Amino acid sequence: MISTIRKSTYKAIYRLLDKVSPLPGDCGQLCGAACCTCGGDDTQGDGLDFDMGIYLLPGEEKLFTRKEDWLKWSAEDAEDYEFPLSWTGKVYFVRCKTPPHCPRALRPLQCRFYPLAPYLTEEGQLELILSHTELPYRCPLISESMPLQPSFIQANRTVWNRLIQDPLIKDLVRMDSENLRKRMKRKKRKIEFITVQHTENRPVK
Fold first, then answer.
1. Cβ(1)–Cβ(168) under 8 Å?
2. What's the predicted TM-score (pTM) here?
3. What CA–CA distance (Å, rounded) separates 72 from 108?
């Protein structure tokens, strides 16, 4: 796949997200860094559980050498996974070998965004939501509706506004959003948007 986002743009995005975090402190202390440590015990061999790894966005692999000693890599055919039809060729999955410790400045984007996720409305408007990805652990930021830092929310919005200018990434966000709408409609639940004002006014539980 050929991304329209340059390596320099990804570097700038990383720098922006380096400056923010969901909470003023380390949210990993609330849950034992569950999102870093859950699943996949084989950190050396080929049997590493990539079901609990993350995939890089198209072009994000340019920031890595694939020789990082703290990452396990897998290159998979996009057609073998539930990606948009426009995604062809290889998708790179990575998993940390040294959880919960990693070079923080090199964390992939999906680590940096969580627990937020992008959402495109039926009218094509970008919104932010709490992630609805089904995971084998509980994130207190989501389950306890903890207020997120406004700077974190705004940085996510800025980054996603840039990322969805890439057709491949926009196709992914659109597909995920359509699937979520169907799921929530079946459950008769509404999709809640996350805004700076919303989280500032949300009581801490």
1. yes
2. 0.85
3. 13
Q: Which two tokens stand for residue 73?
A: 């890599």
End-to-end CA distance of the chain: 44
How far is 171 from 14, CA to CA, in rounded Å? 22
Give me Rg for the CA atoms of the chain. Answer: 17
Between CA 52 and CA 137 the distance in angstroms is 11
204, 123 in Cβ contact below 8 A?
no
Condensed to tens digits (0 to 9), the pLDDT of residues 41-78 reads 444 444 444 455 789 999 999 999 999 999 999 999 99
Out of 109-113, 132-136, 146-150, least confident range: 132-136
Question: DSSP strand E in 47-138: where?
Answer: 54-55, 71-77, 90-96, 116-120, 126-130
Q: Is residue 122 pLDDT above 60, yes or no?
A: yes
State residue 165 phi and psi, 5-degree precision.
Answer: -75, -20
Token readout for 77 is 């055919």
Name residue 116's amino acid: L
Between vectors from CA 119 to CA 167 and to CA 194, what angle results, nearest 5°? Answer: 140
Omega before residue 58 within 30° of 0, cis: no
